[in-house]
Amino acid sequence: MCGIVGYIGRRDVAPLLLEGLQRLEYRGYDSAGIVITGKAAAGKPGALKMVKAKGRVRELEAKVPKRFAGTTGIAHTRWATHGAPSDENAHPHLDAENKVAVVHNGIIDNASELRARLTADGTVFLSETDTEVLVHLIARAQADTLEEKVREALRHVEGTYGIAVLHADFNDRIVVARNGSPVVLGIGEKEMFVASDVAALVAHTRQVVTLDDGEMATLKADDFRTYTTEGSTTTATPTTVEWEAESYDMGGHDTYMHKEISEQADAVDRVLRGRIDDRFSTVHLGGLNLDAREARGVRRIKILGCGTSYHAGQIGAQLIEELARIPADAEPASEFRYRNPVVDPDTLYIAVSQSGETYDVLAAVQELKRKGARVLGVVNVVGSAIAREADGGTYVHAGPEVCVVSTKCFTNTVVAFALFALHLGRIRDLSVADGKRIIDGLRRLPEQISEILANEDEIKRLAAEYADAKSMMFIGRVRGYPVAREASLKLKEVSYIHAEAYPASELKHGPLALIEPAMPTVAIVPDDDLLEKNRAAMEEIKARSGRILAVAHQVQEKADHTIVVPKNENELDPILMGIPLQLFAYHTALAMGRDIDKPRNLAKSVTVE
Ligand code: AGP
User: Fold this and answer.
1) Which domains does the chain have, with CATH numbers?
2) Among this protein's residues, is 403 annotated catalytic?
3) 0.70 surpassed by pTM
4) Cβ contacts of residue 370 below 8 Å, gap of 6+?
């Protein structure tokens, strides 16, 4: 949520920062801004030059003057928390003397209190943001160095931040700090970058250093150093980003959402690669840090995530119950952390997150660890906060997901859960034959995904058929229910059509009252032991003149239309049944002219409460 990018070196900084902002725009896109250090005149420090604009990065780009030269700068793309999107509230923020500039991700919890204190002392605020208090605190700090000034200011601040600071009197450096919001340094040849996300760096360098919470860094063109907010030096070992710059591009597709849906066969192949052990009909998951004896001791599993990751966790819980026979359930992390949960030493907790940054999930992990629980992470972004905070876990290897709406990561997360459930099952009571059956099913997935994607034209035609709906119902039972929930979330996020998901069995307890021709239903109808029950639910809808689109393994007579998907093992069917509905949501939104990669009011990583 919000993107930061900064550069210090010898190149013209404005084009570099604007390009970085374009790559980070998926993190927030209601306003943007850039500040650079101008050339120093004889004996005088270079003044700061700033441009800000409400709207997208292209609006900012149009406002940047031709003469905007400099080799050091910081920039920001915003997702509003304090104050509406506007030029004034856009970052960077400057002090009264135009000497200090700050860009900030996160939320300063005690901003109102600090603002009142600073105002009483005569400070005039130009924006409604929480960030501006930091600028004035740094400007007023008495210390001699920029590092000390920032440290002094941060001592007053409660909350989360990833910040980058420029100061006209210290124009050979950028000072950055992290607490709860990611900050990554990019190490170049006689140039340094900083960003909130490697996406902004990989076009220039793949050598990165990820700061820890409580860490700061000073970047100069030729070197960098890291230290804690208390001042002690830390050791920073650069690592190499796994993905090439092209992985962050659209690769010939019109939207990232389409690209990411299309990549799913390869992505699933990747999460399976090198993990299957045919000899024992099981899988190896290197980073779990949970040996067989410990795995046998697990009495319950609680999965925590938000949004799409929560839905993936719901399917994960079913897979664990089915394959390992361990009671498991999923809960929104955002609710869990506020209900003073009973933390049981025999329960294994699993935090699920694409970004590895979602604040509600991270806070739940921290609370669990504080209470002595063991927490594993199922995460996509390598080295992210949740991955680092967890005691172990597995990466889902979906590759960079740029569209705000999650698709390929959902699929890979569910596959990762299938691997984990199989691993636990084979340590416990799952037979060799069943282990082999699941492994064979997993191996069939990439080809079956390609088969579903090859049906895109037909799905597009169906999307056009239902695009006039003002509201849609999604139903499924047991394995099909989380698929229905995720499909309904996809449709509302990207098309803004209202959608509800219900267990098919609950229809007659209330939602049936909504059914009429203008409220179509999407029914998830796998060929499993609940097939007849699902058919009965469709019958109930038909009897009320409802239109039905079924996703099934065979054409459903009761439905007006059926999207037929290939059959896998019953346990693995949910992985495939959601994929055509990703395309359905995509084509519905496309037909309605929606801004598919950047839906209104949303941002990719929700790093605030
Ligand atoms: C997915 O389409 C959503 N935009 C959203 O629900 C997302 O899944 C949620 O915010 C959790 O994000 P995470 O997986 O990065 O933790």
Assistant:
1) 3-248 (3.60.20.10), 250-453 (3.40.50.10490), 455-595 (3.40.50.10490)
2) no
3) yes
4) none
